[in-house]
Amino acid sequence: MEFRALGRSGLKISEITYGNWITHGSQVEEDAAQACVRAALDAGITTFDTADVYAAGRAEEVLGRALAGQRRESVEIFTKVFWPSGGSGPNDRGLSRKHIHEGVNASLRRLGTDYVDLYQAHRFDHSTPLEETMEAFADVVRAGKALYIGVSEWTAEQIRAGHALARELRVPLISNQPEYWMLWRVIESDVVPACEEAGVSQIVWSPIAQGMLTGKYLPGQAPPAGSRATDNNGGAGIIRRWLDDDDLLERVQRLRPLAEQAGLTLAQLAVAWVLQNPNVAAAIIGASRPEQVAENVKAAGVTLEPHLMKAIDEILGDKVERDPSVTATRSPVFD
């Protein structure tokens, strides 16, 4: 396993990070979830990412139990706040002082820990003054409940504004967690330069596009039985949008010889690809079976040659989404 500094901080995290969105508390049974966490630890992964909204809090509980008995100082635990995680009242969402303080206390209880290493704003809150949000995060850090703060799916302008306030409040905002993979590069032209200026790293989710980049989905064929595309509890609605494009699926198959040339599987190539971006500190992988963890961690420490990166671009061509304005649509505007 390789380790990278998170933002302009002294915190080192494993460049392959284990995340339990979709899987823990919903898609897989707890025994399987625990086995996946053990496989991650055995592979050298020290960084674990979750959120209070995943499976309405159950994902945090499962992760907390899975990490129980580990030396707390030897792992990095990340979680997030924004979406409702149980209640349905007007204050059960967003980034108000009330929701942040209640959210972090609930997350710590579910995770069975006194603090998280990174506490993240899961989206930008258009309904709450940014000053209130950042002051509440500063209070969380000063109370020792989080060591660092981060954001997820914020635009370049939002990151700049949040980082400026964090500097005034003298709290470390060091990360952004966006979707980023070979065909989804909306952060490259706008968000990444803003983060480089601010000393903020990317912790990217969906590097394998929910399994689409594994090559298991073939043009003109039904999804394999037991795959994520057939599991309505496992993100089928998310991946389905890509599976109707036979041209795209055919181009993914054309990546296979490039992966073999690098001595990698398609999944490993996908994870290694996002790690070539110097602003990316970690790629988040999920798993429903321990073998998936063992496969994906082999992307750690891989350097892809420039000619290989160019060949990937030539194959994917106009299928790549680069529009930076897409990020702004990720954060809802509440009434």
UniProtKB/TrEMBL annotation:
It comes from the Bacteria. Signal peptide: none annotated. GO terms for molecular function: oxidoreductase activity. Keywords: NADP, Oxidoreductase. GO terms for cellular component: cytosol. The keyword NADP applies. InterPro entries: K_chnl_volt-dep_bsu_KCNAB-rel, NAD(P)_OxRdtase_dom_sf, NADP_OxRdtase_dom. Residues 15-315 form the NADP-dependent oxidoreductase domain. PANTHER family: HYPERKINETIC, ISOFORM M. Belongs to the shaker potassium channel beta subunit family. This is Aldo/keto reductase. The lineage of its organism: Bacteria, Bacillati, Actinomycetota, Actinomycetes, Jiangellales.
